Structure formats: C-alpha cells, structure tokens
Amino acid sequence: MAVTGAMLVLFLIGHMIGNAKLFLGKESFNAYAEWLRTVGEPALPARTLLTLTEIVLAAAVILHMWAAVTLARRAAKARPVKYATKKKSQANGYVVHTMRYGGVIVVLFVVWHLLDLTFGVVNPEGFAATPYDRVVAGFQPSRWWVTAFYVAALVMVGLHLRHGLWSAFQTLGLVGGRNRRLLNAGAAVFSALLILGFLAVPIAVTIGAVK
Amino acid sequence: MKYTIGEPIRDTKAPEGPIEDRWDKRRFSAKLVNPANKRKLTVIVVGTGLAGGSAAATLGELGYQVKSFCYQDSPRRAHSIAAQGGINAAKNYRGDGDSIYRLFYDTVKGGDFRARESNVYRLAQVSVNIIDQAVAQGVPFAREYGGLLDTRSFGGAQVSRTFYARGQTGQQLLLGAYQALERQIAAGTVEMHTRHEMLDVVVSGGRARGVIVRDLVSGEIETHLADAVVLATGGYGNVFFLSTNAKGCNTTAIWRAHRRGAYFGNPCYTQIHPTCIPVSGDYQSKLTLMSESLRNDGRVWVPLRKGDDRAPGDIPEDERDYYLERIYPAFGNLVPRDIASRAAKNVCDEGRGVGPGGLGVYLDFADAIARLGREAVEKKYGNLFEMYERITGEDPYTRPMRIYPAVHYTMGGLWVDYDLQSTVPGLFVIGEANFSDHGANRLGASALMQGLADGYFVLPTTVGDYLAGGPFGEVDQADVDEAIGQVNGKIGRLLSVNGTRTADSYHRELGKLMWDYCGMERTEESLRKALERIPELREEFWNNVKVPGDGEGLNQALERAGRVADFFDLAELMCLDALHRTESCGGHFRAESQTEDGEALRDDENFAYVAAWEYGPEGPVLHKERLEYEYVKMSQRSYK
Amino acid sequence: MNLTLKVWRQNGPADSGRMVTYQVTDVSPDMSFLEMLDVLNERLILEGDDPVAFDHDCREGICGMCGMVINGVAHGEQKATTTCQLHMRHFEDGATVTIEPWRAAPFPVVKDLVVDRGAFDRIIQAGGFISVPAGSAPDAHSVPVKKDDADAAFDAATCIGCGACVAACPNGSASLFTAAKITHLGLLPQGGPERDSRVVSMVEQMDAEGFGGCTNTGECTAVCPKGISLDVIAQMNRDYLKAAK
Ligand SMILES: Cc1cc2nc3c(=O)[nH]c(=O)nc-3n(C[C@H](O)[C@H](O)[C@H](O)COP(=O)(O)OP(=O)(O)OC[C@H]3O[C@@H](n4cnc5c(N)ncnc54)[C@H](O)[C@@H]3O)c2cc1C
Ligand code: HEM
Ligand code: HEM
Ligand code: SF4
Ligand code: F3S
Ligand code: FES
C-alpha cells in the first residue's frame, strides 16, 4: 500500500510541475509534452519514458487497488457481525474513513481525465489537437461543470493524500514521538499545496487568465 | 461454635542451624527428579497470579507436565495485576544500610511477631533474585537517569528498598510471569485452562492427586489428575463483600482443600487499609484503594460537632478536629495503617463521619496547595486526584477528599510447612492463599515479594523433593467419584432452592455483618454475636437463595452463589479464631487487649503461636504451632 | 435517573443474538456503569429472567477483563477509561444507551457481552516474552537501560489486553495490542536478542488469528484506556520490515 501509494504521489508531484508549465505559454507546454515523448531519442525509441511511466503507473494503481481490496476484504472477514449502533469516530474525524470510497472516486476521475486530456474522447478539441489546446478548450467557462468536476475530484485526491501521506510513513515505520505531529502537519500542508498547484490550471483557464 | 484442641504442631520441616544457611541446606537435601522422569510427572497449579503464574512457568521449564487453571478469560488478569505500590528486595542498591538481615528483621517485627523466622529469612534472601529475574524478563521498573533501577521507601521501613513500576508494579510483574507462562504453553509443557473454576481437591491414598473443576463456559464438571497439586488462588478478603480485592476473589479453592484435611492458619488476620474511597451507596460493588502516599501531604480531619452537615469549606478551622495530629502528635497523619484505620472508625462511630452514611473522613490538601502551589501538588498526586474525581465526581483540588478504611489483604490462609506443603501430602499452597510469612500484619510491598519467591524459587525445589518420593500409584476411582458427587450435589442444591433473594444480597449482608463484628475492631461480644448470626443467615441462604438458569453453559450467578456459600463457612471460622485469640496483634485488634494509648497489646505468653485449624465433623480442631524467636527479640510496637 | 438500555443478548456462539430493551430506574449518578448493570441483573434474577452476562473482575481499570461497546464507542465515550471506571453521571436522565459486545471474528461471543479473547494470549505465545529460565538471571544492575527507553517501554507495557482497540478498529485489526508488546520488549536491551524473530512470529500469528490489517485510522488509540500511542504501530512496522528483509 505504502510503496504503491508513494509512487503515485511521486507521479503527482511531477505531473503538477509539468502542468505548471502551462503558465509559461503554449510553446513551452507543448514542447514539454513533445519532450516527454521524444526524450532519449534516438538512442531510445520514441515514448520510452512515457511508456515506462505509464507501465509503472498502471502497475502501481493496480497493486494499490489490489492491496486496498485485500485489506477491505480482510476487514470484512474480521468483523462479520456489524455493530447495531453507528460507530462514532473517536479519532481524527472522518477523513481517515474516506480512504476507500475516496480512492474509488479518484480512479473514476482518472478514467474521465484520460478520456478527456490524453485521448481527447470527451474533449471538444479531440485527439488531434495539441495538449495545450485540449487543456484550454477543456476548461472553457462554458464548460464550467468540467472545471467543477475537476475541483471536486482534486479535493478528494487531497483528502486521500492528507491521510495517505503520513499513513505511508507510519506503515513504513518512519514516524515516532515528536515527529508525529510535525509529519501530520506536513502531510496536510503538502496535500494542500499539491492540490492548489493542480487547481491553478483549470481555474486559470476557466476565468480566462490563460487562453 | 464449639472447638477442641488437638495435638500441637512440632515440626515445620525447617532445617536446623544458623538461619542464613537453612535455605541452602534445604535445597541441598532436596531430592532431584531426573529429567526423563519429569516428563512423566504432572503437577496441577490452580491460579495464575504472581504465585501461580511464576510457579507454573518455572515447573514447565523444569520439564514437568503442568496443568494451569484460572477463572478469568486469560491468566494475565489474576488479581495480582492490581497491586500498585511496589515490591521489596534487599538489594541495598542505595547503600543505605539495607541487608537481607534488615529486611528479615523489619518483616518479622512488622508482622507483630506472629511469623516464622526461618520462612521470613528465606523470603528476604530470595527477594534479591526476584528483582534479577524480573528485570531479565523485561519488567520495566522505574529507572534513574544513570540507567539504574530506582527505589523508594515504603510502609515504615527506614531504607529505600521498594522497587516499583509507576503505580502499576503488580501489573508489570504479573505480565512478566504471564509471558513466561505463555512461553511454556507454546512450548507444550503447560496446558492452560482458562475460565475454569476449581471446586474440589481429589485426595486419594492420603495424598492430593487432582482437582475437580467446572468449565465455566460449557458448565461441564471435569476431573484432572496429577502427582501433586499446587493452590495459588489468592486471598479471601471478599468475605467482607466490600474490599479492594477483585470481584472474583474467593475462598472456594482453599476452603474445599480445608474440608479435605488441609489446616487453615490464622484465619482471623485481616489487613485494613486506611485510604480507600468510601462507600457511596447500597449499590456499591467494591472499594478502590488510594495510594497511602497521599497521607504525606494531606491532613485528616472531621467536624468537631456530631452531625455537622455543612460543606467542608463552610466549616471554620476551629470547628474541625484534626484527630490524628491531636492524638498522635509525633507521627500525626503518618501513623501506621492499622492505627489510622482504627482512628477513622472511632470518629465515625462517634457520629462525626462525613459523606453518605457518615462513613468517611476528610483528607484535605488545602494546606499543601497553599504551601506548595497547585502545580506541585498536581505533579505529585495528579493521577490519584484524577482517579478520585473519576469515581466520586468531586474535585479534590477544591474540596477535601473523603476516605475510609477498607479490607485489603488476608494474612491467614492454608497452613503450610517450610516446604509450602499443607497438611495434605502433595498439596502445596503458595502466595496469598497460604498463611505463611507475614504474621499478623503485612508490610507494604511484601505480598508481591512473597508470591514470586514462592513461585519462582521455593516451590520448584520443594515440589521436586516431594515428587522424587513417588510414584504414588493409581488414583482410586471411588475417591474421584466421591469428589464429583460433592461438587454436583452442591451445584444441584443451589439451583434447586429457587427462593426469593439473590446470592449477592446475602453476600452483602454477610459482608456487613463481618465488617461490623469481625472488622477493624473485635470484641468478645461482637464476635459472639457474629457466631450466632452467621449460621442463621447461612440457613436462610440455603433455603431462600435464588439462582437462575441451570448448570449448563455460562452462569455467572451460579458461580457467585457457590462462592458465597463457602464464604459463610469461612466467616464462621474467622470469627471463632478471632474470638479464641484474646490478645491483639497486628491486623487483629481485640478491644479488650490494648495499651493505655489504644495500641494493640500482645499476649506473647499465651498466644505466640500459629492457630492451625483442622476441619472436623464435630467442629474445628485447633492445633498450635509454637513460634520461637532466636534472632529478633520480641518487643512492643510503639508510634508515639 | 432513568434509562432505557438496549442490550445485546446472545445465548451462545450458535445463537444469532438480538438487541433487547430494558428500563432501569433509580440509577444513581455515582454508580459505575457495571454497578448499574448489577442492579439490572439483580432485578432480572428475581423476575426469573436470565441476567446479562458480562466480564469484569478488578473494577478499577487494570485487569482488562471488562469491555463493551456503549453507544457505538468501545468502553464508552469517556476518554482513557475502562467500562468499569465509567460512571453514570456522564449520562443524561432519560437517555437510551445501547450496549454491544466487542465485535470481531477472532473474538467470538461466548454469551451476551462476554467474548473470547484467547487470540490475544496466542499472539503472546508466538513470541511476546523474553526467554529467561528462573534462577539464571544476571544481577539486575548488570545491564543499565537508558531512562528514555525504559520510559517508552513502560508506556507500551501499560496495555491491559482489553481488546477495545480491536473493537474500535474499522478493520478489526489487533495492531495496537500486538505492537504494544513488541515495542515494550524491543526497546529494552534484554529483549534485543529475540527482537527480529519476535516481531515476525507475532505479526504472523496476529494475521493467522483472522484480525484485519491496519490502515492507520487511529480509532484504536482513541479508545484505548491506557492511551497506547500509534507510535508503537510504526515501531512494529519498522521492526517487521527490518526483520523480514
Ligand atoms: C489494590 C491492591 C493493591 C496492592 N498493592 C500491593 C503492593 O503494592 N505491593 C504488594 O506487595 N502487595 C500489594 N497487594 C497485595 C498483592 O497484590 C496480593 O497479595 C498478591 O498479588 C496475591 O497474589 P497471588 O498470586 O497469591 O493471588 P492472585 O493474584 O489473587 O491470583 C489468584 C489466582 O487464582 C485463581 N483462582 C482463584 N480462585 C480460583 C478457583 N476457585 N478456581 C480456579 N482459579 C482460581 C484466579 O483466577 C487467579 O489466577 C495489593 C493488593 C490489592 C488488592
Ligand atoms: C481505487 C483507487 C484507490 C483506493 C481504493 C485507495 C485506497 C487506499 C487506502 C484504503 C489506503 C490506506 C492504506 C494504508 O494506509 O495502508 C490508501 C493509501 C494511500 N493511497 Fe490510495 N487508493 C486509491 C487510489 C490512490 C491514488 C490514485 C493515489 C495517488 C494519487 C493514492 C495514494 C495513496 C497513498 C500515498 C496512500 C498511503 C499509503 C500507506 O499508508 O501505506 N491512492 N489508499
Ligand atoms: C487539474 C489538474 C490536471 C491537469 C490540468 C492535468 C493535465 C493533464 C494533461 C494535459 C495530460 C496529458 C499529457 C499528455 O498527454 O502529454 C495528463 C495526463 C495524465 N494525468 Fe493529468 N492533469 C491534472 C490532474 C491529474 C490528477 C489529479 C491525476 C491523478 C490522480 C492525473 C493523472 C494523469 C494521468 C495518469 C495521465 C496520463 C499520463 C500518461 O499518459 O503517462 N492528472 N494530465
Ligand atoms: S492497546 Fe489499549 S485498547 Fe488495545 S488491548 Fe491494550 S489497553 Fe486495550
Ligand atoms: S484503528 Fe485500526 S486501522 Fe490501524 S491505526 Fe488502529 S489498528
Ligand atoms: S474490570 Fe478490570 S479493567 Fe474493568
């Protein structure tokens, strides 16, 4: 769980930084997208990095989901008879209890997201357009509901990470004593920053700051 | 109740010679069992407290086949877990002049010269090994910054020899023994039977050869046979219903053994602890101990006037009676347990007690808070104040605590010789269940020491010696059947009465009666009254108790009723013992026998003996074991 | 005070069980929760009913025997409190209180509110000890222990084995209990030699008993009467990863 989760987080960091290039203009962003596809050429065939990332990512997601499903099934087996009373959380509130369905929502989002920005299936500009145009077209003010959907999904991602981050440290046994509070706060700040970073793009497009 | 005097007990099997060499001598003379034979020998250990847990683990490790029993769902929950203060050991790590001899001396004196010198000396010797053993097992005793063990002084000792683990010494020591026990269970040398209650001993061919137990979950009556039986079933303070003991503490195991021939030693010796949270209502189910250390800073008082029901804050200084400071100016609030307890009882009897029912005195920290500041007081006693607040809902920082004495420990128990063997061959008794090492009064922090000394070090040697004398032949089935018949008969009777009162309500009434007539202060009159009333109440119990359900499956009401039935019989023997001992000593205070200052007045000429009671169909038979003091001179205790 | 109790009644492992409603009257706010149940039971016995079975012994929060889920919270909503130490003054007059047993497959119900926690003992059997035969120990002062380590080990050692952590964990995990013992023994030099084998076999036993896995939700530590910290789980994970390498 922790290892696959950590890989996903690493990807997210890279992805956010990449996305930020959008603010540097059309060329820069498209060049980046191009670079992603051609890096290492001619020594390596086209799309080596991208394909590798995709494979690793896909593996990480599958393993992560597999682990989550296994844990959930073990949990269900460990408590075959449920409590009659709805249990009140005595711990850090509800965030920690959104991990499972929160994760599912995130994956659904990614599916939509790929159809949208990678394959352009649900994108007004279609697959032929440059990535830059797809992004800009995707988040036009008229398509505010797409932006809203992204915002909602990203908040979900944020919540998932908010708990997931420190949880990964805990699972790997890297927390202890005084660090705990620090790490917990760090996880919150990090998730917030990451999500704000991501959100900057669609919002900027929607309000017309990027055309 | 009539009793007869039997033959005195002349030999306790303690070796002769200088006291320091006796235990070594005994160990050397003890016969050994060869390892191949050990595997064929079964030892039953009933009880998994400090005594039983450590004994079962050690015997298992030595290679015997051990069967261990407890009534809780896990051996880790034995009542020893509740001990707070600490455990004594003559380590002299402080270099403050402690020694084995001094611990021995303090314990004999603390027991008011009613304990055996040989046993106590051995206890002090072995105490040193207990700490080593516990530390090696990972018991997290308190440590100092240098990494070495911390100690504190406790209960009247002038040296700092009490090792402790915050306020949870018993818990940590018990977990050590429990873990050792679980290790043997995993190794297959110990077979554990939790939620099993022992209801009788099988005596065959004059030897203890097994036990009859009830599986508390299925209700089944089972027989377990063995080559030796060890009882480590704890104390019987619950005869008073309200005590600091766990709810399940009972006398059933030792009482049944007593009925089968084991003598009962000094049943009347009971320890009352002065600082417990008082009873708050009729529903009260048990009493909670507050550490004695509170008396270091708290001042004890009651209103001067009878029936003064103003709030404590509204009672002006000159209408308060700081009675301990008044009566014992030298020791003040720090007089020993028995003195403090009795003084509290006296003021309450005068009608000056406070709180519900007038059974309580104030323990006031206002002065300490004014002097040291709230923070300092909080640092020292914070957790105790919190516990008090949790139970009473009152804030001890702004309102004085209410405290009252409560039954805490029973020094009496089955009589055992130097080998911890009872008068039934093959039946050994260890820990609080035996009468042995504390005499008429136990010093703080020495029960844990005794339980572990017995279990880890003494018993494994002496049981081996006994078993080397075997094999003891087949167990006669008729003896087993007879015991099972007894057990089933009793259960059947309890279930068939179907009267109108619960066992608990009888227990409560018996407890009150014992507290009033055979409690902190006993008189000939009160004891005679008790001896008249107990049989009547018992009669009523057997004709009017209501036990629901049947013997199959978990039936907690049935368990309780069985225990109450035995408490009735024990209560009677306690009162008889208290009546016959017309002297005062330690925890046994006969109002007729006191010094001018109201202290216990011993009568060494007539009572320097252990009273060992034999069960007889025509009433009990008293056997006296004379106590000789060669090393510590008998003297009067004084606290002025 | 008067209360409405909804209590889980189950005759035995084979019975499927149900909630039964009882009224209790004249409850004193000074009563402990268990004393309130005692009063109910006395009445049930006299009425010829079966009293409610529940575990308890010390009634002062140390033996770990008591435990029930009260209004959906293990040991009730008072923090750091066992059921036996919970007092009725924390409830409101006229309130409805639901009482259920610990629920976890490795803790089968014996009767009513009584469950079998033998799985905890078996986890300890798998390695929750330091192997030292009686009489063979070196002098207690031969191995000094850093005070910090001793204190941290102590914090972990205060676990009373009540099982509330399992009852509260959404995954039915026994991680807090198991990790507390691993941490207690692992932090002490005496426990060093068996540290690796201990963590591996105890974790394996915990899984074999059918407890769920930990996803760090922290409900366990929130209900733990001894406030055992999540640090112990991190320590267990760390030790496990190191030992399993
Ligand atoms: C609140 C409190 C604080 C204390 N503090 C201290 C202290 O600080 N220092 C100190 O030295 N002493 C202290 N004591 C005294 C000390 O704790 C006990 O005397 C000691 O622990 C007794 O140990 P034990 O092994 O003999 O019996 P217990 O620990 O009582 O164990 C009895 C065992 O026998 C089993 N058992 C009983 N009856 C049966 C039966 N019929 N069938 C099957 N099994 C049965 C039980 O299941 C249990 O396992 C304290 C006592 C109390 C009550
Ligand atoms: C089907 C989709 C998903 C599900 C069901 C899911 C579920 C979970 C669960 C239950 C946990 C807690 C496990 C634990 O703490 O050990 C978790 C942790 C985590 N998840 Fe997800 N998740 C999903 C998708 C994602 C995605 C897409 C990411 C990254 C963007 C991610 C990142 C993380 C991280 C970093 C952790 C912490 C790992 C740990 O504590 O061991 N998850 N996830
Ligand atoms: C609003 C913020 C986001 C924007 C603007 C954005 C934009 C993009 C774009 C433009 C691409 C296509 C890149 C290409 O084809 O070269 C892409 C791919 C991708 N995005 Fe996002 N993304 C966002 C958030 C996310 C989030 C939160 C996740 C995961 C949880 C995610 C996961 C992915 C994945 C998995 C790919 C495919 C990568 C690949 O094919 O290698 N994205 N994104
Ligand atoms: S960790 Fe806490 S909740 Fe769990 S068993 Fe131990 S004391 Fe009980
Ligand atoms: S509640 Fe359960 S998920 Fe882990 S942190 Fe505690 S064991
Ligand atoms: S009864 Fe012992 S902890 Fe509650």
From TrEMBL, chain A:
Lineage of the species this protein comes from: Bacteria, Bacillati, Actinomycetota, Actinomycetes, Streptosporangiales
UniProt keyword terms in alphabetical order: Membrane, Transmembrane, Transmembrane helix
Keyword Transmembrane helix in annotation: yes
Keyword Transmembrane helix: yes
NCBIfam families: sdhC_b558_fam (TIGR02046)
CDD domains (alphabetical): SQR_TypeB_2_TM
Domain of life: Bacteria
Family annotation (InterPro entries): Cytochrome_b-558 (IPR011138), SQR/QFR_C/D (IPR034804)
Protein name in UniProt: Succinate dehydrogenase
Organism: Sphaerisporangium melleum
Membrane-traversing stretches: 49-72, 93-115, 144-161, 182-210
GO annotation, cellular component aspect: membrane
Gene3D superfamilies: Fumarate reductase/succinate dehydrogenase, transmembrane subunit
TrEMBL record, chain B:
Gene Ontology CC terms, in alphabetical order: plasma membrane
Entry annotation: catalytic residues: 337 (proton acceptor)
Cofactor(s) listed in the protein's UniProt record: FAD
Catalysed reactions, as listed in the record: a quinone + succinate = fumarate + a quinol
Residue stretches in coiled coil: none
MF annotations from Gene Ontology: electron transfer activity; flavin adenine dinucleotide binding; steroid dehydrogenase activity, acting on the CH-CH group of donors; succinate dehydrogenase (quinone) activity
Boundaries of every Fumarate reductase/succinate dehydrogenase flavoprotein-like C-terminal domain copy: 507-639
Primary enzyme class: oxidoreductase
Domain of life: Bacteria
Protein name: succinate dehydrogenase
Organism: Sphaerisporangium melleum
Originating gene: sdhA
From TrEMBL, chain C:
GO molecular function ontology, one term from the record: electron transfer activity
Keyword Acyltransferase: no
Domain called 2Fe-2S ferredoxin-type: residue spans: 18-103
KW Signal (keyword) present: no
UniProt keyword terms in alphabetical order: Iron, Iron-sulfur, Metal-binding
Cofactor(s) needed for function: [2Fe-2S] cluster; [3Fe-4S] cluster
Protein name (database record): Succinate dehydrogenase
UniProt record similarity statement: Belongs to the succinate dehydrogenase/fumarate reductase iron-sulfur protein family.
Signal sequence extent: none
UniProt-listed GO biological process terms: aerobic respiration; respiratory electron transport chain
Source organism of the structure: Sphaerisporangium melleum
Gene: sdhB
4Fe-4S ferredoxin-type domain span: 150-179
